[in-house]
């Protein structure tokens, strides 16, 4: 069960809890505690190669476990990002607002001929356990400037949800992603844990 925000307004527990099953990916799910107090449960997709423990370094194809903080939210209509991240990008915020998600959405990572690998939105996550440096940051991929981050995002192929099918991120169907993004803000907590 997820706890609600305390009297002080500080997040005590995750807004989004993701439970991943390595042995039966069809059981993997996300539990969202909405601002109305309702819990919404829906399926998720996860890393094609499996699950890495909390505190591990991200490796392509593997989903990470642990507690995370949302550092940025990108959609065609929404741009929220920590000021420190904007500074690390080397770009002006106005440029990032205009092009970052559009650029990221046109990349075809898996080579299937369809872009929009992130679907309609992307919530970048940073592990709260910073003991192990992560390979995240900004840069070009096939000539396109993008933000590389562990994330909760959509997909151009919703049949991938409920399977181990991603580059490591957690993916959601469009309607479920819209519900999640309506609740997440920069600084929101997300927990990803393993279930049998």
Folded structure, characterized:
With 196 residues, the chain is an alpha/beta fold. The protein has one domain: L,D-transpeptidase catalytic domain-like (Beta Barrel). Helix content is 15%, strand content 36%. Strands 1, 2, 3, 7, 8, 9, 12, 14 and 15 form a 9-stranded mixed β-sheet that branches. Strand 2 and strand 3 form a beta hairpin. The longest helix has 13 residues. The N terminus is likely disordered.
Note the topology.
Elements (H helix, E strand, L loop, with lengths): L15 E6 L7 E5 L5 E5 L2 E2 L2 E3 L9 E3 L1 E10 L3 E3 L1 H7 L3 H13 L15 E7 L9 E5 L2 E5 L1 E4 L10 E3 L3 E2 L2 H10 L5 E7 L1
Parallel strand pairs: 1-15, 4-13, 5-6, 12-14
Antiparallel strand pairs: 1-2, 2-3, 7-8, 7-9, 7-15, 9-12, 10-11
Figure out the total of helices.
Answer: 3
- Residues in β-strands, percent: 35-45%
Low-pLDDT regions: 1-11
What CATH first level would be assigned? Mainly Beta
| H-E string | EEEEEEEEHHEEEEEEHE
Q: Look at the structure and name the CATH superfamily.
A: L,D-transpeptidase catalytic domain-like
Distance separating the two termini: 17 Å
What's the CATH architecture?
Beta Barrel
Rg over CA atoms: 16 Å
Helix content: 10-25%
**Overall average pLDDT:** 91
> Number of folding domains?
1
Number of strands: 15
Structural class: alpha/beta
Overall outline: globular
Q: How would a crystallographer describe the biggest sheet? A: 9 strands, mixed
In CATH, the topology is named: L,D-transpeptidase catalytic domain-like
